[in-house]
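In this supplementary section we document a worked example of the pipeline. Step one takes a protein sequence of length 167 as its only input; no multiple sequence alignment statistics are reported here. Step two produces a three-dimensional model, which step three serialises into structure tokens for compact storage. The input and output of this example are shown verbatim.
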Amino acid sequence: MTLCDVKSVTLLKIDSPNLQFLNVRVGRWSFSLNDTPTLVGMKLTGFRGVRGEVDLLRSMLSTSTLQELEISFGQQSKMVKLNDDDWNCTSNLLRVLKITGFSGESENERNFIRFLLSRTPVLERMTLQPSSTLVSWELPQMLEGYRHVKKNFIDPSTSSPFFHLES
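The serialised model returned by step three reads:
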């Protein structure tokens, strides 16, 4: 299912027991997933990191069958500071994570990536594509501690890897 540019809706509740893949452009509207026991892949585009989006991700990590997650930051990212409650979730199923469009300069963004890594113990592969080549070098250094994860950094101006970190 793909949802994008839904302009007149402010809240969308998705109740779909057979839904396996969801591609949604987040924005000025919010959505909730109620009955999605077969959802294995989700792509969020236009991610800003506001409280509602973080709460949705936290809920998805702790209650869903999600195995692949792609988050594409929007132009106007306002990543919230994570609080202690945000860290109270774990996904034992998420295996693939891709994050694109982040600046990497914001401490809140780096903490968000750290949060995703620390709450997904069976993660096998992570791909990061920052919005700029000026990404903080703290980010690759931070990721070195997760040796079980295959990491790819994609050059923001192309689709070819900056470098590849092997465990």
